[in-house]
């Protein structure tokens, strides 16, 4: 009888604590999450209100250690890459190839926006783990048609976000002739393809001859990572507290 009374008393206390958790802490945590996500969204959204409210443009210099074969400047306006100005020094001929975005084109930082609305963890993973793409997917992407002058047929480009960096990869290709004795093996999806990777596109087979990767640090991407991480921690802490009550009520002594 005493054990039953003690158990009933414990249950009453737990129910009161759980009621407090639902009424007080859940609302407080959700308010925190709302404030954090609102702050994170400011890093990506373009302000409304016409020319005066437009986000300012930020320019970042592309670089990579130990080489100057690729140089360039990327310009961001809010969540849009509105200009990319790139110079590529061809390895064999030293010919300088210059290409830039057409004035009517811009590239949205798509790795984030849809994922932010779906779930925090997916959004954070989009920043920390770039999407793996096949070479035909890169060749058929809209990026190939965004430059003026148009990219040569033996050049592929890809932009992606990795942590707090905006990265540009340039692939130089050569055509595999039908008479080649090379064993053709199409490459699968990858964040970065290596020289020697093969693929087929438009009834033509290609092999990657050179790969150039340059990047620039975008400080507010690091801010976004922090916001997502803190939000996930808050959610996990709240979930852990609720699971304590669930495990108690689901416990059946034998």
How would you describe this structure to a colleague?
With 254 residues, the protein is an alpha+beta fold. Helix content is 39%, strand content 28%. The chain has six helices and ten strands, in the order H-H-E-E-E-E-E-H-H-H-E-E-E-E-E-H. It has helices at 2-41, 50-53, 110-118, 120-128, 135-139, 219-250; strands at 57-62, 70-77, 80-89, 96-101, 107-108, 147-148, 155-162, 165-175, 198-201, 204-217. Strands 1, 2, 3, 4, 5 and 6 form a six-stranded antiparallel sheet that branches. It has a four-stranded antiparallel sheet with strand order 7-8-10-9. Helix 4 (120-128) packs across helix 6. The chain is elongated.
Give the SSE layout.
Elements: H1 2-41, H2 50-53, E1 57-62, E2 70-77, E3 80-89, E4 96-101, E5 107-108, H3 110-118, H4 120-128, H5 135-139, E6 147-148, E7 155-162, E8 165-175, E9 198-201, E10 204-217, H6 219-250
Antiparallel strand pairs: 1-2, 2-3, 3-4, 3-5, 4-6, 7-8, 8-10, 9-10
Helix pairs in contact: 1-6, 3-4, 4-6
General shape: elongated
Task: Report the uncertain regions.
Answer: 1-6, 48-52, 113-117, 250-254
Q: What's the total count of β strands?
A: 10
Total helical elements: 6
What structural category do the secondary elements indicate? alpha+beta
The description of the largest β-sheet is:
6 strands, antiparallel
Overall pLDDT level: 77
**Distance between the amino and carboxyl termini:** 18 Å
Helical proportion?
A: 25-40%
Quaternary organization: single chain
Q: How are helices and strands ordered from N to C?
A: HHEEEEEHHHEEEEEH
Q: Roughly what fraction of the amino acids lie in strands?
A: 25-35%
